[in-house]
Amino acid sequence: MVQNGQRKKSVVEKKALSPSELRRATWGSIEQIVALLMKLMFEILLDRAATEQIGAVPYERTSGRKTYRNGSYKRSLGTRFGSIEDLLVPRLREGALLHSLFAPYQQRTDDVDKALGTLFLN
Q: How far, in Å, CA of 99 to CA of 91, rounded?
């Protein structure tokens, strides 16, 4: 039996983070969460655009259906919160998906392009 005075210290002392390290770690995790939420939001909006354009939800059989889904493809998009990798964009069997989130070959959002422009012009 271990006496109170003889109790072993098993607690590992942690090194305290400096304010700049703490700020960097906190904002880094927040940016990752925001980028993930943006990816989910983009995928939901693209899926809804496909549903509206097709005229039916997935696996629904209606007489008003205009075309069929044909899988999806992955692409990346640069945002001010970092790059969104593996963004799933739905494909249609006939025609192209019409949406206003980004242009077909756009690599970055407009705010990133403006920031790059001011960076090199100033």
A: 12
Q: Which of these, 64, 69, 79, lies nearest to 49 by C-alpha position? A: 69
Q: pLDDT band for position 31 (50/70/90)?
A: confident
pLDDT in tens, 68-112: 999 999 999 888 777 889 999 999 999 888 888 888 878 888 888
Return the amino acid letter for 73: Y
